[in-house]
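[step 3/7] fold_predict: job queued, chain A
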Amino acid sequence: MLLSKEFKFDSAHNLIDYHGKCEKLHGHTYRLRVTIEGVPGSDGMILDYGILKKTVTEKIISRVDHQYLNEIVPQSTTENLVMWMWSELEKPLLSPAYHLYEIKLWETETSFVTYRGQ
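[step 4/7] structure written:
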């Protein structure tokens, strides 16, 4: 079974080693969906949504919201950002009952990356 929670954050970045309008400093309102896979326990839940929210907020949102993303991921493409997010969330979202399954990150309403680990 898959369980997901979505988040939004605003950040600025610019793409280095890229020639086009995105090489200049600009910002986005990102949408992030974190999905775990697991089996409901005796309480009927895979994981309490509150715990998932707290984990993602501490590990990701608090570090990227209203920040300059190049200070975290130097070439801050959506692809590189989701790989960084995966590395930050994989261990905290691992238990015998569930594991991190997928991260989706929207840079715009119609452009996003889906990542399921290596």
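[step 5/7] annotate
The CA atoms of residues 93 and 99 lie 6 Å apart.
The chain has one domain: 2-115.
exit 0
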